[in-house]
Specification:
disordered C terminus; two-stranded antiparallel ribbon; alpha+beta; 225 residues; OB fold (Dihydrolipoamide Acetyltransferase, E2P); 6 helices
């Protein structure tokens, strides 16, 4: 009991001996180090977890449909899901280079196994994301690099890679940039509405260069279109 009382009195009075002063300084340094380590640990967790949360969902599947240059159908869990490429916009089928953009996408991914890095789901129920090719390249970037897609700045304002790829394609006059003033789909009357119809599975069936068969029937590639 006497020992506890002694400790209590010592804890509340100022240090008087050199040993007590040294102990107090060490205690202060330890507390400051603990606070610094706590802050650093919190920052480290944010740096690790925030990017992970931004790309928390991925899946791998076979591409079974090419709706247009920037919309494809991918098998996920045995069912086809529509995937809209993030941050890019290809010409509509009726526009110049619309057919080329669709063929480019088909040549790269039809019946190939791709990885979809999901970023969002749009109002039409399509998954929006980055499509990674079997060799690790991004289909989104390859389309812009080839001059067959615009950098869709309103939806990817901070994507400096797409911005630079578009600038390079424009400077080299590749693809749609061969024209003096190419018109993006969002600037065309009814352009967005046409895009939605083309991506919809309820659209009237028309022959596609790449088209999936019904479930259980082998996929076929129709030629001569």
């Amino acid at each position: 009991m006497r020992q506890g009382t002694c400790v209590g009195r010592w804890a509340t009075r100022p240090p008087t001996t050199e040993g007590e002063r040294l102990m107090g300084r060490r205690r202060g340094v330890w507390q400051r180090q603990t606070r610094v380590h706590g802050v650093c640990g919190g920052v480290w967790l944010l740096l690790v977890l925030v990017p992970a949360l931004g790309h928390a969902e991925q899946f791998t599947g076979t591409v079974v449909r090419i709706s247009d240059g920037d919309t494809i159908g991918v098998l996920r869990g045995g069912k086809e899901v529509r995937v809209r490429l993030h941050g890019v916009d290809t010409p509509e089928k009726a526009q110049a280079f619309g057919t080329q953009a669709r063929k480019f996408t088909g040549d790269f991914v039809f019946q190939q196994t791709v990885t979809v890095d999901i970023r969002d789901t749009d109002r039409y129920g399509r998954l929006v994301g980055d499509v990674l090719l079997p060799d690790g390249r991004s289909l989104n970037q390859e389309l812009v690099k080839a001059g067959l897609a615009w950098w869709y700045k309103p939806y990817a304002p901070h994507d400096t890679t797409l911005a630079q790829l578009e600038a390079d394609a424009r400077a080299a006059q590749r693809g749609l940039w061969a024209e003096a003033h190419p018109v993006p789909p969002w600037a065309c009357p009814g352009g967005r509405a046409r895009s939605v119809r083309h991506a919809s599975h309820s659209s009237p069936r028309r022959p596609h260069h790449w088209q999936s068969a019904e479930q259980g029937v082998p996929l076929v590639r129709l030629s001569g279109l």
